[in-house]
Amino acid sequence: MWIKSSYTRIITLVVIFVFGLGLQFCTKETLPEPAICFSEDIYPIILSNCTQSVCHDPYFKADGIDLTTYDEILKEVKPGDFRNSRLYTSLVADVGGDIMPPKSYSVLSDEKIALIARWIKEGAINTSNCQSACDTTNATFSGKIVPLMETYCNGCHAGYQIQGNIDLSSYSKIKPYVTEGRFLGSIKHEIGYSEMPKNGASLSDCKISIIEQWIKEGALNN
How many domains does the structure of the chain reveal? Predict the structure, then answer.
């Protein structure tokens, strides 16, 4: 019985050690990155920053390139090889070269460029209707609204060239459009309002719900 008890204890200690070792190395830095959804993560960045008027929209097609659909975007991509994909190399070109967006617009953040690179590296798959839990709690301006603006709106309505003379680069400039209803009407594609994002589908129901919750709570600068 003593032998059996000691054996069981040794096995238990080994399990605890291995589990503890796993916890030690299972840090935030080593956890797998969340899957990239083309329709939610990549497409909005491209629409907001690359398809402004006289750029890569379906009408002007600068340099013969239209980036308003997945099939057209894929023409500028080598799935699995972001370093030789024109979509990526144009974002990291030397200043003064053929960098995109052009110098009259704000360049993409390192985070957005890295996201596009990872999407290409992982196969540039056309994933859409990606389901995830919709969290409308803590709908603050800084925590929830600003990231949405940066992804969906600021490519056209911030920076050096403001499209449609509508500047949405700060809370004080966004608030009047929220108060008069134009902001929500546009993103919900309601009749009588200019549909935004331009050239693309409306925001997901979840993202619209987050914005509606922020407005319901007073559209505060929090």
Answer: 2
Q: Does residue 94 contact residue 141 with C-beta atoms inside 8 Å?
A: no
Q: How far is CA 137 from CA 25, 130, 206, in A?
A: 31, 20, 12
Please classify residue 149 by burial: count the beta carbons closer than 10 Å to its beta carbon, then call 0-12 exposed, 13-18 middle and 19+ buried: buried
Full domain range(s) for residue 112: 38-121
The pTM score is 0.60
Mean pLDDT split into 10-residue runs, the chain, 222 residues:
45 43 48 76 85 75 86 94 94 71 75 93 88 80 88 77 82 93 90 80 83 93 95
User: CA 210, CA 192: separation in Å to the nearest integer?
Assistant: 22
Give 6: exposed, middle or buried? Use CB within 10 Å, 0-12, 13-18, 19+: exposed
Residues 104 and 164 in one domain: no
Type of residue numbered 118: R
Decide: 199 and 51 in contact? Cβ < 8 Å.
yes
Place of tokens 């999407």: 119
Tell me, yes or no, whether 114 and 147 share the same domain.
no
Whether residue 64 is contained in a domain is answered as yes
What's the pLDDT at 156?
Answer: 78
Q: Which of 87, 121, 155 is the last residue of a domain?
A: 121
Do 106 and 149 reside in the same domain of the chain?
A: no
Give Cα 121 to chain centroid, integer Å: 17
